[in-house]
Design goal:
Largest sheet of chain A: none
Structural class of chain A: mainly alpha
Number of helices of chain B: 14
Number of strands of chain B: 0
Oligomer: heterodimer
Helix content of chain A: 55-70%
Number of strands of chain A: 0
Distance between the termini of chain A: 17 Å
Radius of gyration of chain A: 23 Å
Shape of chain B: globular
Largest sheet of chain B: none
Number of helices of chain A: 13
Shape of chain A: globular
Structural class of chain B: mainly alpha
Helix content of chain B: over 70%
């Protein structure tokens, strides 16, 4: 993770760069997309998932919660595109509504983790006195395997959508804090920070105006990866029965239930699993691409 | 080396203290009365008072916390409410499958990941490189439990080669044991092997661009010699860390794999404890897992420091 601490010196373009003619932003964008194919591919897939999730009530005709005991475990058909599950619920409409839940949780967790991780990282990195106590606290949170800590927190908080968000945010915050801290540690020693200090600029202002902007690229990269991991994390917790309550259509819940019907109804496992894999893959491709663009150290490899 | 080891060991103490406090506080995060949650709505006041006394919840918070520390130092992690036995005993009973599963998964990850990464780096830009790196990123994105469900569908339900789920202890024979652990271990190890392949590839590429590799080529060292003796040896130091860390990660992932394949391991014990709201068991298992996790990470760091002297002298 320490690979992400790009110092600003490296982001300055090489000396010969001003000799090359300025190109329009769209041709530069096109070149970037061609070089890092993960960004357009991942971006498009993700966009499709977002649109489907937002339009969930429009693209599904059947209530994802509607039970139909007579039509249980029926294979994919015209009426039920992805078949039905053990309660006769429509798998297609549950998969679509599951996308909504996954994206909602992924977005909330990554936004909250960026917020908390940045706050903690800035404080630990900038104020020497706070560094040791804060980082020891972060170490102790990283002393658990992530999923195990999340399960423990869910055990205490009880199953609910927002408790999943809380638990996953707590699990991912230390990692984000570490990345931000490592950037702050190098920036803090730069001359422009020293200059600001000498001018008597207040600490909050230095942190927000001078140091925070330099943390932006690792924040974007980590935020994307944490989005992906949160989607997986929610699904894992729900699969284990320690996530969102079972009646909510979530990919993890669906897969957890599908486990008992593999022989009779493999479609209950196939579609939510494919959607989950595709979404996480898109986010990871996007994250990889963004990292290659923003972190010059990876450009050559 | 000794000084470094001692310093690292001393660093564990504050972290362990915070871990113990966090685990203790979990019970207090529960909204409402934990005793009411454990016993359900039908419990009488008498039963509640009884359980409260058993858990020590009738004491003031600071007394409870101190007792928890003292008990931890004595190696006493409390008694499970539902199993009615010591947490440590319940844990030890479930340890064998988890350890075997994790080790086998690690073996899977190394056997698949390391050669793939080396070959991909050697044949950089070839179809093999492209294909394996594509599979690797897909492998990182695929949820463990979905891989597991697919494997069960293919190899157990459709082909009938391997048992659907369950576990046979090692005492029933190695083959019997392996038959049940093969799919769970592959499921668990696959994502790690993908990660390992990507890491190995980028480490090897970094090393292969060094001057001394060119020198080795120039003086006529055979291809295998350059790759294995010169390049791999230098790429191996960071890889040791990654392999060690993946052992720790696999320990967490085992929870999921055990749940898919109905393996009576530590992970299932934890999940059962959570669903039954058996708080002492949850706390105890969390404590032991955190302890093991920290020891593994410490051993990895020490190995790293041993292999690369720059680590212990720097800092």
């Amino acid at each position: 993770m320490t690979k992400l601490d790009a110092s600003p010196a490296e982001t300055v373009p090489p000396a010969g760069d001003f000799l090359t003619p300025r190109t329009a932003w769209y041709s530069r964008l096109a070149r970037m997309m061609r070089r890092h194919k993960g960004i357009p591919v991942g971006g498009l897939v993700l966009l499709a998932v977002v649109i489907v999730a937002l339009a969930a009530p429009l693209v599904t005709g059947i209530d994802p919660l509607a039970l139909n005991p007579r039509g249980r475990l029926s294979p994919p058909s015209e009426q039920h595109l992805f078949g039905t599950d053990n309660f006769g619920r429509d798998v297609y409409s549950r998969t679509v509504w599951g996308a909504r839940l996954s994206l909602e949780i992924g977005f909330l967790v990554s936004a909250l983790t960026v917020l908390s991780g940045t706050t903690v990282g800035l404080l630990a990195g900038y104020f020497r006195g706070l560094d040791t106590p804060i980082m020891r606290l972060m170490d102790s949170m990283m002393a658990f395997p992530g999923i195990v800590l999340a399960i423990g927190l869910m055990a205490a908080l009880g199953p609910s959508k927002y408790n999943v968000v809380t638990a996953l945010t707590v699990v991912y915050t230390p990692r984000m804090a570490r990345v931000v801290r490592s950037v702050v540690l190098t920036i803090r020693e730069m001359q422009f920070v020293e200059a600001a200090q000498a001018q008597g600029t207040s600490n909050p202002r230095i942190l927000l105006r001078h140091i925070l902007p330099n943390c932006l690229s690792p924040l974007i990269v980590q935020g994307t990866f944490i989005f992906a991991e949160a989607v997986l994390g929610e699904a894992s917790l729900s699969f284990l029965g320690a996530g969102t309550p079972p009646y909510i259509p979530s990919w993890g819940n669906m897969l957890g239930e599908a486990r008992a019907y593999l022989r009779d109804a493999p479609w209950t496992m196939l579609f939510p699993g494919l959607s989950l894999t595709l979404t996480v893959l898109a986010l990871n491709l996007l994250g990889d691409g963004i990292r290659d663009v923003l972190d010059p150290r990876f450009r050559k490899v | 080396m000794l000084a470094y080891t001692i310093r690292r060991l001393l660093l564990i103490i504050p972290v362990m203290l915070v871990v113990a406090t966090t685990v203790f506080l979990l019970l207090y995060l529960t909204p409402g009365d934990p005793v009411g949650v454990i016993l359900g709505p039908d419990a009488t006041e008498e039963q509640k008072a009884d359980l409260r006394a058993r858990l020590g919840l009738d004491q003031p918070a600071h007394v409870q916390l101190l007792r928890w520390y003292v008990r931890l130092l004595q190696g006493d992690l409390g008694t499970s409410i539902f199993l009615d036995k010591a947490v440590t005993a319940a844990f030890l009973e479930r340890l064998e499958p988890t350890i075997l599963l994790t080790l086998l998964a690690l073996a899977c990850a190394v056997v698949i990941g390391l050669p793939t990464g080396i070959i991909a780096a050697k044949l950089r830009g070839s179809w093999f490189d492209m294909a394996s790196m594509l599979i690797a990123i897909a492998g990182v994105s695929m949820p463990t439990f979905w891989i597991g469900l697919n494997l069960i569908f293919i190899f157990a339900v459709s082909l009938g080669w391997l048992p659907v789920a369950g576990y046979q202890p090692l005492s029933r024979g190695l083959w019997e044991n392996l038959r049940y652990l093969l799919m769970p271990a592959f499921t668990l190890g696959f994502a790690q092997s993908a990660l390992l392949a990507r890491m190995t590839r980028s480490m090897m590429l970094e090393v292969l661009s060094q001057d001394y590799i060119r020198t080795a080529w120039a003086k006529g060292v055979a291809e295998m010699g350059v790759l294995c003796r010169h390049a791999l040896r230098n790429a191996v130091i960071p890889l040791v860390t990654i392999i060690g860390l993946s052992f720790a990660l696999l320990l967490g992932g085992a929870v999921i794999s055990e749940q898919i394949f109905n393996i009576p391991g530590v992970g299932r014990l934890l999940i059962q404890a959570v669903s039954r709201r058996d708080y002492p068991l949850v706390q105890g298992v969390l404590m032991i897992i955190a302890g093991i996790y920290m020891v593994v990470n410490l051993v990895v760091d020490l190995t790293y420091a041993y292999l690369d002297p720059r680590i212990r002298h720097g800092d």
